[in-house]
Amino acid sequence: MKVSVFERMSALATKHGAVNLGQGFPDFGWPPEILEAAAAALRNGSNQYPPSRGLAELRAAVANHYSRHQSLALTAEEICVTSGATEALGASILATVAPGDEVILLTPAYDSYAPMVRRAGGTPAEVALRPPNWRVERQLIEAAVSPKTRAIIFNNPHNPTGRLFDLEELQTIADLAKQHDLVVISDEVWEHVVLGERHFTPLASLPGMAERVIKIGSAGKIFSLTGWKVGWIAASPDLAGVVARAHQFLTFSTAPNLQVAVAYGLTEGDAWLDPMRQRFARACNRMTEGLRAGGYEVLEAASTYFLCVDLDASGIAVSDEEFAIAAVEQAGVAVVPLSAFAEENACRHLVRLCFGKKDETIDAGVAAMLKAKEIFS
Question: What is the pLDDT of residue 44?
Fold first, then answer.
């Protein structure tokens, strides 16, 4: 297993004193009320092991949140709380994949997917999404299905491209899953970080999919508190139970005071969501406009807090890895090469930047990107 590209680029940012637009954490946006709830729970509540599947109040809050926002009919018994979404993904993969199975990944993809599939004894089968539109194409996925295929890992909204897949594309995934009797591990952690007037549709809401989707969620993404590492899975009782049994041998449980605070946020914090989305949209526009004014070709972002820059179209004739190293070492800005998100058919002319930053961080990052462009002019 390689060192994560996020760890690698963040370490280089620290070493060189660079603006870190590589690792995906915001430097604004968390509501003070949820911090107070966590502090109060730490002082006044239990600090011992909570139930492995999560505090009852948080599991109920997750189910009710999805009922209000996505019309999903869930109960607390269908929720398992995990130590972040990455652990939820790991538990879901270990619960689903047996030695010899194949798992379809749509690349570029979050870099934990393939290593975890291999740890479970499975084989990743990559299907490349094509820039600049990154559309899900049925014939390409169908060609990757074999008698050994057990699951699809589907990420929507999509990291690293910022794509929000439409209903036709969701139906393609659903149709293939039902046709070939596949489980879909649906990584939906960015479900509330949707820009503009766009609308997110959960895959489990499509007909016939509730019983075969393991939905992954993240409080860190909803409340801009990535360091809390509070995530969850939502699935049918049978699937949820198997994932919970895998989870018990990974982290077993998650800090109880943080669970209490997240339950409070999910129950009382609906009014926080629209201002959060608007703030991220403004940040995206600020970074996009600054980069385009400096001669960069920026692909449209519809969700997440990431955008991609096309180096070839920007007149920079080097690989994404070469650009990323020069940018952090010589120009003072850390970005992520998109080739780190795929093992085959990698997009070696694109880099990813995090726009979930304060104005001054964005401006410093854009200035450094313009300096990086001069290196290759």
Answer: 97
User: What pTM does this model have?
Assistant: 0.96
Distance CA 300, CA 307 (A): 7
How far apart are alpha carbons 269 and 265 in whole angstroms? Answer: 5
For the chain, the distance separating the N- and C-terminal CA atoms, rounded to the nearest angstrom, is 36
Mark whether 286 and 298 lie in a shared domain: yes
Last residue of a domain, one of 239, 268, 297: 268
Are 233 and 116 part of one and the same domain?
yes
* pLDDT tens digit sequence for 143-158: 999 999 999 999 999 9
Q: In DSSP terms, which residues pair with 284 in a beta bridge?
A: none
Give pLDDT < 50 ranges for the chain.
none
Helix (H, G, I), strand (E, B) or coil at 216: strand
Domain boundary among 234, 268, 302: 268
Instruction: Assign 264 to helix, strand or coil.
Output: helix
DSSP 144-212: H--TTEEEEEEESSPTTT-----HHHHHHHHHHHHHHT-EEEEE-TTTT-B-TT-----GGGSTT-TTT
Alpha-carbon distance 154 to 113, whole Å? 10
Domain that holds residue 368: 5-30+272-375
For residue 6, give the nearest of 360, 355, 367, 334 by alpha carbon. Answer: 334
Contact 187, 293 (CB under 8 A): no
* Domain total of the chain: 2
